[in-house]
Amino acid sequence: MGFFLRRLSFYLVALLFAATLNFAIPRAMPGDPVTMMFANASVQVTAERIEAMKKLLGFDEAQVWYQQYFTYIKSILNWDLGISIKFYPQTVTEILGGAVGWSMFLAGSAVILAFCIGSVLGIFAAWKRGSKYDAFVSPGMLVIQAVPPVVIAMLVLFTFGLGLKWFPTSYAYTPGTLPDWTSWAFYKDVLYHAVLPLLCATAIQIGGFLISMRNNMINLLNEDYITMAKGKGLNENRVVFNYAARNAMLPSVTALSMALGMAIGGQLIVEIIFNYPGLGTVMLNAIHARDYQVLQGQLLIMTLFMLFFNFLADLLIVALDPRLRKGGK
């Protein structure tokens, strides 16, 4: 419980610090979002109406910066993220709520697939170190990881989408279709549209998990308990998975948690190229429109996901490693 409370306190302080940066950075950007909104509308607007709109959107110039800051912190606690400038009168919560599910599906699926595939490939690469398999798989994954994500996404798009026409190249489901979450046909349509972006997002991340698991396994294969297990004549699969891979998995759990936290906002390129309605696309539109309210909400959600999964990683490491539990006592 002491460990839990210490880590929770740390992450609460980190969240407050991130919220402070979240408040300051958008306001340091050049340009007045409200004035730009009316300028793009090409209409004559009185100064009184502009001031009223600024107050409605949280940019009340009558308040000094620290008053705006405390108002912002209060709104976070109430989960009132304000009204979008670009999509007025929609609220930020409505806009992000409609996008976060798609990003969680795409990013979460990609990270879990990459973790499972990369870890298994890394385990066998370490066990068969120096073989033709290791000489082909490990450098091959490193090459794929070094390729910019935009290049991989464009290659996949042109090859399987525009060239072979096997899969759709945009949207999360067929345009004009009404979402019906009780229909299996709608789920198949969603999965069909997700194949190409999911393929790209997964391929980008496999190399990191493979190399991490391979290095962890190699460091453990020379341990005394592995040598004893081999000497006792235990089955090779049991030695690999029950003895070596189990302990080598501990650092990978932390990497998996961090990847899940970062992936929520880390699929920007993939979402843009495939016109996928996730948080990355929303963030890009908000940057172009100087939509501070949406930017703040977007960065806040990304921060919450990152801190939550890091906190979860701390708890999982303690649960998986008996030495840490004994050390905590």
What attributes does this structure have?
globular, 14 helices, mainly alpha, 329 residues
Structural account:
This protein has about 325 residues and is mainly α. It has 14 helices and no strands. It starts with a helix and ends with a helix.
Largest sheet: none
The pLDDT mean sits at: 76
The tally of helices reads: 14
| N-to-C CA distance | 10 Å
Shape field? globular
How many DSSP E strands? 0
Q: Helicity range of the residues? A: over 70%
Rounded to the nearest angstrom, the radius of gyration is 24 Å
Uncertain runs with pLDDT below 50, 5 residues or more?
none
β-strand percent reads under 5%
Briefly characterize the structure.
Helices cover 77% and strands 0% of the residues.
List the helices and strands and how they pair.
Layout: H1 2-28, H2 33-41, H3 47-56, H4 65-77, H5 92-127, H6 132-146, H7 149-163, H8 184-221, H9 224-231, H10 236-266, H11 268-273, H12 279-288, H13 292-320, H14 322-328
